[in-house]
Amino acid sequence: MKRFVRILIVGLLVIGISGVSFGQCPSTLDKIKNSGVLTLGVRNASGPFSFINRQNDRVGFSNDLAELVHKAIEKKLGKPIKLEMKETSPSTRIPMLTSQAVDLVTETYTDTRSRRESIDFSITYFVTGAQFIVKKGSPIKGAQDTGGKRIGTQQGSTNERVLREKYTNAQLVTFPDQAAAFMALQQGKLDAYCNDGIQLWGLKYKSGNPDQWEVVGDYISYEPYGMGMRKNDSDFRGVVNAALMEAIEGGEYFKLYDKWFGPKGELPYPMTPDVKAFLLYQVVPK
Amino acid sequence: MFGLFGLSYEFRWSVLWVDPHLTWLLNGLSTTLRLAAISWIIAVLLGIIFGAMRTVSFRPAHAIATVYVEFFRNVPLLVWLFFWYFGAPEVFPEFLKQWFIRHGIEFWSGVAAISIYHGSRLAEVIRSGIQAIPKTQLEAGLSSGLSVIETYRLILIPVALRLIVPPATNESLNLLKNTSLAMTIGVAELTFAARQIETYTAKAVEALTAAALIYLVLCLTISMIMNKIERKYAIPGLIARGTGAEH
Predict the structure, then answer these.
(1) What is the pLDDT of residue A21?
(2) Do B9 and A187 touch (CB under 8 A)?
(3) CB of A171 within 8 Å of any CB in chain B?
(4) What is the mean pLDDT of chain B?
(5) At residue B130, does pLDDT exceed 80?
(6) For residue A182, which of A264, B122, B141, B232 sits 20 to 30 Å off, Cα-Cα?
């Protein structure tokens, strides 16, 4: 009897394992349809893209765009879908996507070719580049001045990679999150902190003493932001991209841009004509 | 095999030994070893001093040691790391702070946090070792003309250190593994290196497996050494158990 039970258990395990491993991964749209939930990967302190505001709500430009995607998915599936949000970070974004913990990462996610080996991206919805934030009057005016200086970076970010590969004389101090790095800068433990320009403007405005900080230097990297999703799921990617294209084409995107980055927005950051043209060219005809 | 988790995953173990990834791992390993070794030495010294103070009848010494142990062991190590990195240096004189900033402040804050935290835990282990020795040994030492400090130094602590080898091994292994938390304050140790490879290549399983194996090998080596020490220094008749723990 004991032996029989043992064989039964082993047999079930074998069937279970092989069944799962040979079964197909469910498509994201099926998963959302079955569970009735769309799970977003968001951030708590990447303002104004994705952050927690004073009222303790998760808000931001990326969140607003995700809301448009959410509506498009509801329309596509023909039923109401619940929206859930989970905290992600540069180093957890890919594992959380592949393990199906989140369906769509909507925060400040730079589209890169090496990331595209593991996941897929939506069309680009924001463009920025790496710069430095320094205390006013600092001798650092750009990447050329970083030799021998203590430069803070965020682990897993694309600009960390650019600095490590191109500006090898900089002394990099890499932190898992932006809050720790900026605190170290404020305390004088770093000479500069490097991140996407738009994020540095966000830090400057939120520091409580914006005049004390300067964002300096030319862009040392090109950072096109996209929404991250699981690889090889073109139905889902199609819905996401169509929602973004419609928002850009219909002008809703620019209203949201104005809400967050306009003169009265959270963080004034006027859109250059180049970027505007680039966004419009991404919209393929109906 | 990763079909188990419902995801298709392509293994590419070569990411571990192409440069610069291998250099990162080796640098991370070296930082981990230095951080662990320096912290361990300080922690053992703190442990012996405060562990012994916890057992003496001189009240102020006992009180100081108790405050140290209870204060430092009852706050999470992660909080201590932030304290020693973001908090403590801010009250240092400016020249001292600047000196530390130019000489690896992240590393030394990590040493301070880990050694003081683990010192408080080792103090308890050492106290238990001393208290396991019959009180008559202290009395015998005193009546043979030794002072209290001499009795501790020559009789009680040498015996106690032998008694506590198994729990002290445990603490030492914990200390080694806890150095991985130092990455939160920017120390580029082994776990940091693994995460770095992961973020560059998106090969999480390979990178973290490499880190896990390295920690495993380090810990097994320490266990083996401690096991040898335990056998070598066993006092026959008192705490000899013939054989050490099996591995």
Answers:
(1) 43
(2) no
(3) no
(4) 89
(5) yes
(6) A264
